[in-house]
Write a structure and sequence with these properties.
With 684 residues, the protein is of the alpha+beta class. The protein has 17 helices and 28 strands. It is 34% helix and 23% strand. Helix 4 runs antiparallel to helix 17 and helix 14 packs antiparallel against helix 16. It is globular, with a radius of gyration of 27 Å. It binds 2-acetamido-2-deoxy-beta-D-glucopyranose (NAG) (6 copies). The site of one 2-acetamido-2-deoxy-beta-D-glucopyranose (NAG) has 3 residues, from loops. This is Tyrosine-protein kinase-like otk.
């Protein structure tokens, strides 16, 4: 069965290939090495020809933008070549600009963004007879704002009563919310906590309603605590806290109650503890099992997955090695043999053409996409956020669950707008990665819109979006001010502070472990990710990490990328061998993983923020780049990261090993905090 599924995915990709009429590229199978720079020398020689004839062109192509309501923004449209081009902006195809939007020297300017400014705009460059146009989307979004509870609100209840804690937020797109208790989020994994739809909803004491309200039934003294409501969407995050004060029967609020509330805080056993214990128990169980397996002499890498899958794959790869050589005579392969297409599964054209019909089911009509918001541009085209109706998708896939209500899910849309072979190959490589590697901490490929150009890759997205933005939102005003003063305002633009609850120590380590598990799974399938960074990870409102690939090389994250030899690379996240030799491997992913964990602990700081790109590059070349371990990081984790940053790739640990070590670190943190709690209790 597994084999069939695998083959079907492969054939699907073949169909893609056949449809687009492009040859596929092969990579060395081993640890998925590739040499990007060599590829790019070819690319630049192609480019030179274009520059020589001075053709009118956009440089760079303008990109879409998301503007906050009432904010101002600019979209540049720069042209090169031609004789004396004039550049002008229009609404839609050729309509005059709306009031409040102006165009000057090719720059579209919005002074005070309003909802009605959202829409498609066209930049038109005219040079004599010649005209070129480029379309972008402008989206005006409204950052979430919590209306209820108001900051610092108190709620007084008497023992035995029901407490209703509303969490109401406004924003566009509509935000989703979660409750935390004393900074640990509430979820149905915890004892006594349940959601409205659950079968046990009537008996749960803590009930999370779909409208965002938290209901606490039969309140008792230990329930008194600080409860926080966080609202998040693609447009941002907001958080307010409410203090629940519990009174004994007949007691008069509020003055006399403070003592009771204070005591209650100490007595209370963190509900979240139960969840952590559960997660840990699972991790420990898995680890034990793996260790046992290892003792039985099985292969290291087997541990992250079901053994059968692996065996099947090895068989496949053998076949492909034999198969691949025939196709390597293809036109492109002179220089792209080593371009990192470790997705060897696309090898057998004969195999796929037989089965091509089976892969239709990944195709999704783009009419199912709604509420598109442009995030920026990635390696091969625009990146959008949209909603997709999963009920319709399931119907398409014949997985009709009888639902008729639309189930809207956020989806990341990566458009393939370039025709460059290198970009096409990268598009396929990512399709492949997300279709083949299934893991709860990796986003899923939901489908492909390929009925027309541009093709869209649809990746699962989370309600709260980018991990990086979330991390920045957890900074307190003091922490944010300290960062800005340390590295300078030009490197760290002041961010709105403390819009989300800070992550507890266990939770930070847990995010690291989730990322390690995701990366280990990629490595197992012989995929390299090549852009592991907080900006490419997502977080859910339940604080689960998912590895994704927005890679907004142009747009809001562009300062995290650097153009070297005609290639845009995440310079500050890469080890020297990747920067200097274009050598990407699982071991360069290990290095990038460590940088991402560093980001989690520094609350989204830019690596080497004080240095400009050229200084970073100089230090990479001279091997003098030194990472510092944040104070908040457990010592063992710091040591682990240092090993991941080893100059020699072979000195860096395997992801499986990293995951195991993180499990132990997590265990230590949790047992420490548990013993702390029991100590508190005995003192009482
Ligand atoms: C935007 O400005 C309008 C009027 O100036 C104001 O009523 C509204 O509250 C503002 N909205 C936000 C989100 O700041
Ligand atoms: C437009 O460009 C011209 C020449 O480059 C410059 O003199 C003028 O100030 C610019 N206008 C604006 C509004 O930036
Ligand atoms: C509901 O409660 C019963 C008994 O308390 C328990 O056995 C069952 O697992 C619960 N179901 C869910 C979905 O939590
Ligand atoms: C949400 O639903 C609960 C129960 O139906 C209700 O008590 C509460 O007031 C609702 N909250 C809001 C904000 O409407
Ligand atoms: C409320 O909780 C108390 C213990 O805190 C328990 O004795 C009582 O039976 C509960 N009442 C209801 C109606 O569940
Ligand atoms: C809430 O968190 C603080 C700091 O982490 C801790 O000192 C306190 O004991 C916690 N209270 C409860 C009720 O868990």
């Amino acid at each position: 069965m597994k084999c069939c599924k695998m083959c079907s995915k492969r054939s699907f990709l073949l169909v893609m290939l056949l449809l687009s009429g492009f040859e596929h590229i092969f990579g060395s199978e081993d640890v998925a090495h590739h040499s990007a720079h060599r590829v790019h020398y070819h690319k630049s020689s192609r480019r030179h020809r274009a520059i020589a004839d001075g053709e009118l062109r956009f440089e760079p192509e303008p990109y879409s933008k998301k503007l906050k309501l009432n904010s101002s923004g600019k979209i540049h449209c720069k042209v090169a070549g031609g004789v004396a081009p004039t550049v002008q902006w229009f609404l839609n195809e050729a309509d005059p600009l709306p009031e409040g939007v102006s165009s000057s020297n090719g720059t579209l300017m919005v002074a005070d963004a309003e909802r009605r400014h959202s829409g498609q705009y066209t930049c038109k460059a005219v040079d004599g007879e010649k005209t070129i146009t480029s379309k972008i989307n402008l989206d005006v979004v409204v950052t979430p704002r919590i209306l209820e509870p108001v900051a610092g609100q108190q709620l007084h209840v008497t023992v035995g009563q029901t407490a209703v804690l509303n969490c109401v937020a406004s924003g566009d797109p509509p935000p989703t919310t979660h409750w935390d208790r004393n900074l640990t989020i509430l979820g149905k994994q915890q004892e006594g906590v349940d959601t409205e739809d659950s079968v046990n909803a009537t008996s749960a004491r803590f009930l999370l309603m779909n409208n965002g309200t938290l209901i606490i039934r039969n309140v008792s003294a230990p329930d008194a605590d600080q409860y926080g409501c966080t609202a998040g969407s693609a447009a941002g995050l907001d958080r307010n806290e409410l203090q629940l004060i519990v009174h004994q029967e007949g007691e008069l609020p509020p003055q006399e109650s403070s003592g009771v509330a204070g005591k209650a805080v100490v007595v209370s056993i963190s509900v979240a503890g139960a969840y952590m214990v559960l997660v840990l128990a699972l991790m420990v169980y898995c680890r034990r099992r793996r260790l046992r397996r290892r003792q039985r002499g099985e292969k290291m890498e087997l541990e992250m997955t079901e053994g059968r899958e692996k065996l099947v794959e090895e068989g496949e790869e053998e076949k492909q090695k034999a198969n691949g050589s025939a196709i390597q005579n293809g036109r492109l392969l002179g220089h792209e043999k080593d371009s990192g297409a470790d997705n060897s599964e696309v090898s057998g054209i004969s195999r796929a053409s037989k089965k091509s019909g089976q892969y239709e089911h990944l195709s999704i009509p783009r009419t199912l996409l709604t509420e598109q918001i442009t995030m920026g541009r990635g390696e091969f085209g625009e990146v959008l956020l949209a909603k997709i109706d999963m009920t319709q998708v399931n119907k398409l896939r014949n997985k009709d669950d009888g639902e008729t209500e639309p189930k809207l899910r956020p989806v990341l849309v990566k458009a393939l707008t370039t025709k460059d072979e290198i970009h096409l190959a990268e598009f396929r490589r990512q399709l492949d990665l997300f279709s083949r590697v299934r893991h709860e901490n990796i986003v899923r490929l939901l489908g492909l819109c390929n009925e027309a150009d541009p093709h869209y890759m649809l990746l699962e997205h989370t309600d709260w979006g980018e991990l990086k933005k979330f991390l920045i939102a957890t900074r307190s005003p003091e922490e944010n001010a300290e960062y800005v003063s340390r590295v300078g305002a030009e490197h760290a633009p002041p961010a709105p502070a403390r819009r989300a609850a800070p992550l507890a120590p266990q939770h930070r380590a847990l995010l690291g472990a989730q990322l390690a598990a995701a990366a280990a799974k990629c490595a197992l399938h012989r995929f390299t990710h090549r852009d592991i960074a907080a900006r490419n990870c997502l977080i859910t409102s339940k604080l689960q990490l998912k590895l994704s690939y927005p890679a907004l090389t142009r747009g809001p994250d562009s300062h995290e990328y650097y153009k070297l030899h005609e290639q845009v690379i995440p310079l500050r996240w890469l080890p020297a061998e990747a920067v200097l030799e274009g050598d990407y491997s699982t071991k360069s992913d290990v290095y990038m993983f460590a940088v991402t964990v560093w980001e989690i602990y520094t609350k989204g700081e830019l690596p080497f923020a004080k240095l400009n790109d050229n200084s970073v590059l100089e230090r990479v070349k001279s091997g003098s780049l030194e990472w510092t371990i944040p104070d908040s990081m457990p010592e063992a984790l710091g040591e682990l990261l240092k090993r991941c940053w080893s100059k020699s790739p072979s000195d860096r640990p395997q992801f499986t090993e990293i995951y195991d070590e993180l499990t132990v670190i997590l265990q230590d943190i949790t047992s420490e905090s548990t013993s702390q709690k029991s100590q508190d209790k005995t003192e009482e």
